[in-house]
Please model this.
Amino acid sequence: MIKSTTNAMLTPGLTHQSHCLVAQANTAVAMGSGDMDVLATPAMIAMMENAAMLAVADALPTGDTTVGAEIHATHMLPTATQCEVTATATLTAIEGRRLTFDIEAHDDRNRVIGHASHVRYIVNRERFLSKL
Model:
């Protein structure tokens, strides 16, 4: 367990929901990942990563953040423009700096549209950026 300066504990079970409205900017056509006006897989994955990042953000020591390293995702159903999508990330394992998340995305009809297993690593922001 890692204790942050806010006294929040980094423990399995931390969760966060990220939301987005499917708009022209995050369709497959706009992102270049397809030729239809539906939620793009890269947009869904970005929302999933955002939910995972925010699930643990308040439990990290000052100056630390997480970076995505691996994601195994399935995009199962299309989502039309003007529909809301919610990605729920849950921290399932902590192995040193390695954090593993289970993430599920739902549309506004409560259908599962995607699922992912995601790995993030805790890094010190300053040290990480000094490597650029």
Observations:
- The radius of gyration is 16 Å.
- The helical segments are 28-31, 41-56, 125-130.
